[in-house]
Design a protein that fits this description.
By secondary structure, this protein is α/β, with parallel strands linked by helices. The strands form 7 sheets. It has a 13-stranded mixed sheet with strand order 3-2-10-9-8-7-11-4-12-14-5-15-17, with helices on both faces. Strands 23, 25, 28, 30, 31 and 33 form a 6-stranded mixed sheet that branches. Strand 26 and strand 27 (550-552) form a beta hairpin. The chain is globular, with a radius of gyration of 25 Å.
């Protein structure tokens, strides 16, 4: 696990260092009381059939038969505030932000793709304002942090999409908090990916209502089992794109006197590329897939296109509901993707895909519609960014912006009202390195015409002579490197990128947060494999969809995995582990300890096979309050491998009775 700090200036090659600073917060927000749950599961089932207008009644929650008990959900209190300065309640529109996951700029009919069918996305573009050069981060969690905060993700402490680096700092103020304080009802439906532990959940970051998932992706699209409703793990019946749309419709339909902010963050078309697989939905999924196979697409591409198509169908009924309910006229609807695309069948002449700093990795569609207020058919040529959304929403809502921190975004409202604009940001910046922010390996910076790119793999020494300069005005496909012809422009753009990088990383620590345990609102904490640090020559981490990740390969005594904890309350904690072990050829003994004095020893018990994980409760440990290291260590190994450790669960057993 890498933990670095950034401070000072960047030089080519060496790793930068950082110091964390606490930010004073004179901008007061209302407290957000919210219970956090862990280790219990309930089931979401539709209450009644689909209605005539393609909407669904509000889902109800039932206990899952697999769980021993069920915790009632807290009632959501509406914290209505007064309208923002200068705006009456009638002047403030509803805001509906739609974000897809891994959809490319080119995965739409309106951007020139003749094979994909996206009539509802295309109609939104025609009826609203299009942005030709709207930029997002190369990958998803950084974009989501920028949307929520109006700040480039490196300012927020987030630096990864896994390994605990996908947690947005608790000091950050979100757009949901700002709009909630201004009197908006707030809801998020779909992907969060900005924190999975108590204190970092959507309901604790300003959202009144949440149905979705914390991870970067989920493994099941039909009958999904990695989703949560207001911090409570649930299981659901149906197809996930439909479920998130149903939840958004239900939230919008709820009678209220105040406006709403609804973020509908689909997990499609992120992998795994799954269509309906249930007994009643599979025929429709197969039909959709066949449509694109018949157009000559390869299976991978056909699946991605079909997933986008399925989102578009849901947007059709969502837009119809807005119109039928009379909310369309006073609702600003925005559509975008969270990073560059993963499809490759058609790329509109752009270079690169998701995770790249080329245009194909960072350019997103942005369509914005407000009937009668923003001109239909408007086109903005000026380069804009995902960090612009928070100030845009604050201006629309009359919400106060935090004055105690640097915001990188600029409101898009003037461009939207004009329906045009040749310039917006003088520079837009991109950088992405999974393990630690790096100013030399994967980065780019652009002005309105020129773009400088540096892309170097981990095994290649960064070399300024291989930087690439492109004239986006005449070469949007980034085909002709003009760095040697324009050395002054190269120097200008590199200096600007370094200035920006030093600023946004100054004073920020990049490391997984210590996992909070002992919160009375979250007596059970699930500790996942990806947050641990492996120590030993053989033990390693295997990624396979978050909830199925493992620590495996243990072959020698002393090999271990360590997690950093923040024990909020001293007490007795029951320890449960989940692992797989073959009946033969594996096994041995291991210990679990926290600190020097508290430890448990256990014999590995066989499961059906190493890929079948079972839970085993080992006993209790007494943990003192404060920072601690939780360690699982091999004591002896009887076969080729000790076990495949999936998760550790800590449950505080001495919880005060209410």
């Amino acid at each position: 696990m890498r933990q670095r700090k950034c401070s000072g200036s960047v030089r080519p090659g060496p790793v930068v260092t950082v110091l964390r600073h606490e930010i004073a917060r004179p901008f007061a927000l209302e407290p957000l009381p919210r219970r956090c749950y862990g280790g219990f599961r309930a089931t979401v089932r539709p209450h009644g059939p689909m209605l005539e207008n393609n909407t669904m009644r509000r889902p109800t929650i039932f206990p899952s038969p697999q769980r021993a008990f069920f915790l009632l959900l807290p009632l959501l209190g509406m914290n209505w505030a007064t309208p923002g300065p200068g705006l009456s309640a009638a002047d403030r529109p509803n805001i509906l932000l739609i974000v897809t996951d891994d959809q490319g700029y080119w995965d739409l009919g309106v951007t020139g793709n003749s094979d994909i069918e996206t009539p509802n996305m295309d109609s939104l573009a025609r009826d609203g304002v299009q942005f030709r050069r709207f930029y997002v981060a190369p990958v998803c969690a950084p974009t989501r942090a920028g949307i929520q905060t109006g700040r480039y993700y490196l300012r927020t402490g987030l630096y990864n999409t896994r390994f605990g680096g996908d947690t947005m700092g608790k000091d950050e103020i979100t757009v949901a908090q700002l709009l909630k304080k201004a009197g908006y009802a707030t809801g998020l439906f779909g992907k969060w990916h900005l924190g999975r532990y108590c204190g970092y959940h959507p309901n604790q970051r300003g959202f009144d209502e949440f149905l979705g998932h914390y991870h970067g992706h989920i493994e099941r699209y039909s009958f999904p089992d990695q989703i949560y409703h207001n911090d409570q793990p649930v299981e659901a019946r149906g197809y996930v794109t439909d479920l998130f749309t149903n939840a958004a419709v239900d939230f919008i339909r709820t009678p209220r006197d105040n406006p709403f902010f609804c973020m509908l963050a689909y997990n499609a078309p992120h992998s795994p590329w799954l269509l309906d697989t249930s007994h009643f939905g599979q025929p429709e999924g197969d039909k959709l897939l066949k449509k694109y196979l018949d157009k000559g697409l390869e299976m991978r591409e056909a699946r991605i296109y079909a997933l986008v198509d399925r989102v578009d169908q849901n947007l059709g009924r969502l837009f119809a509901f807005l119109k039928e309910s009379g909310k369309e006229e006073n609702t600003v609807v925005l559509f975008m993707s969270d990073n560059g695309g993963v499809s490759k069948h058609f790329k509109a002449g752009l270079k690169g895909n998701k995770a790249s700093s080329y245009e194909g990795g960072v350019r997103s569609p942005l369509f914005v519609r407000w009937p009668g207020k923003f001109p239909a058919g408007g086109v903005v040529e000026g380069q804009a960014s995902h960090v612009d959304l928070l100030p845009t929403f604050c201006e629309l809502a009359g919400a106060e912006r935090p004055a105690d921190r640097k915001l990188d975004g600029k409101s898009l409202v003037p461009l939207l009202r004009a329906g045009k604009g040749a310039t917006h940001h003088p520079y837009v910046y991109h950088t992405w390195d999974r393990y630690f922010p790096n100013p030399d390996r994967r980065w780019s910076v652009s002005d309105q015409r020129w773009k400088l790119v540096g892309l170097f793999g981990d095994r290649v020494q960064p070399d300024p002579s291989k930087w690439m300069l492109y004239d986006l005005q005449n070469d949007p496909g980034e085909e002709k490197n003009l760095a040697k012809q324009h050395p002054d422009k190269v120097a200008e753009l590199r200096a600007e990128f370094v200035r920006w990088f030093n600023e946004v990383t100054d004073g920020v620590t990049y490391a997984p947060i210590p996992i909070p345990v002992g919160n009375p609102e979250a007596p059970v904490v699930e500790i996942q494999a990806s947050w641990g640090q492996c120590e030993g020559p053989n033990v390693n981490y295997t990624f396979d969809g978050y909830d199925w990740d493992t620590i495996d390969g243990w072959k020698q005594p002393g090999e271990k995995v360590v997690w950093n904890l923040d024990v909020l309350a001293a007490g007795q904690y029951e320890v449960t582990v989940t692992y797989g072990c073959a009946p033969s050829g594996m096994g041995g003994r291991f210990c679990v300890r926290a600190g020097e004095d508290a430890s448990l020893t256990a014999e590995v018990k066989p499961t059906s096979n190493p890929e079948v994980f079972e839970r085993f409760t080992l006993g209790t440990l007494r943990l003192p309050a404060g920072k601690a290291r939780l360690t699982v260590e091999a004591l002896d190994v009887k076969g080729s491998e000790l076990m495949r450790l999936n998760r550790v669960w800590l449950r505080k057993t001495d919880v005060p009775s209410e």
